[in-house]
Amino acid sequence: MLESRLRLAACVVVGLLFALVVRWVVIAPSTARVMAGGALALPILIGIPFLYAGHRRAYAWMTLALAPSLVLGLTEVVANPAMRSWAALVLLVVIAAFAVLVAYLRVTRSSSLPSRMAQ
Questions:
Q1: How large is the C-alpha radius of gyration of the chain?
Q2: CB count in 10 Å sphere of residue 60
Q3: Hey, is 66 helix, strand or coil?
Q4: Domain layout of the chain by residue ranges
Q5: In this structure, which of 9, 23, 82, 101 has its CB flanked by the most CB atoms within 10 Å?
Q6: Residue range 49-78, pLDDT digits in tens
């Protein structure tokens, strides 16, 4: 029950992050922004179906795929006063996504480890 709720929460939060990255690209499209947005959004877009299916490895690598979005959010908070509210929202969503992904990994941890009785 908790596993399915965390799985749904992870998909929703990561999907929200995807929407925020797409919004960043659409606001002021340029070649560099489209390429950077594609590099940020592609792992997220690829990972959502695997997150929904409950693949533990997808949850593990998705925590690493959040790092570029975290860097983007931190950079925009510091360097661009006009985008501070958007960047703060990105940081909030990235931290929430990381927390949900790690929570799912911790909840499903016992079912993936071999039992000590089998040895």
A1: 16
A2: 13
A3: coil
A4: 2-112
A5: 101
A6: 999 999 999 999 999 999 999 999 999 999
